[in-house]
Amino acid sequence: MPFTDPPLAGTRVVTLAVNVPGPVAAARLRRMGASMVKVQPPAGDPLGDYAAGWLAELDADLEVRSLDLKAPDGRAELDELLASADVLLTASRGSALRRLGLGWEELHARCPQVVHVALVGHPAPDDDVAGHDLTYQATAGLLTPPQLPAVLAADLAGAERAVSEALAGLLLRARTGEGSRREVAFADCAAELAASVRHGLTAPGGLLGGGFAGYGLYPAQDGHVALAALEPQFWQRAQELLGGADHDTIAATLRTRTAAQWQRAAEEHDVPLVAVAGAPGSSGRGSR
């Protein structure tokens, strides 16, 4: 949803970041009011090859230019854009940026006003180590093999952090008068997302990992429901609606109706229970 009073109106952003995190971050900054020029290679953003609809949504309100940054003309056009830019967003390894003359020292010397938000896989000095969302989640302990993750958690968390770092860099520039380099490492994002697992909260058997009957997934007559009655008032109403406080009793009760019927009943009794989206009987809503 666009802002009624865009906080980044008048801010100029140039993004070279393709694939998932860069376009997600760019779209968010654009919704906050920034003017946005996306520079992509002549072959286009690879995201368009495997999720064209998503990329079309993300790029819908951006100016997109296809430039060969290894060619003099393309590089000259990029330099012209950067001369008036406030933020540069990249998602390339450090060595690749240095080959393009976009290492931080060189960039800062030419364009001291630019805040460079660098999306990388691993923190420097390991920013040349290859990786993707799956490997970051694997290292952080977020996977349950052989199931692949349904959400690109590290990528999307990195995109949101890129927006935060852009804002932090702009605030710092307002005090110092100069741009700064802000690094966002997907491996760090994945590690922080895994904090609830490391501390036992969502680990198997933990309070939110199956240990508490009021928080879990249960089969209904068709499909599944998600019950999240954590607070005492919700848990009390859930017990009254479902006839008990243990896993077996709740499971037996929930099997007597469809997921959609249970969601309607939960809404009437102010209990946080919904049909699991995509399952038979689901309303398509995954949260309240």
TrEMBL record:
It holds the Pfam family CoA_transf_3. SUPFAM superfamilies: CoA-transferase family III (CaiB/BaiF) (SSF89796). GO terms for molecular function: transferase activity. InterPro entries: CoA-transferase_III (IPR050509), CoA-Trfase_fam_III (IPR003673), CoA-Trfase_III_dom3_sf (IPR044855), CoA-Trfase_III_dom_1_sf (IPR023606). Signal peptide: none annotated. Keywords: Transferase. This is CoA transferase. It comes from Arsenicicoccus bolidensis.
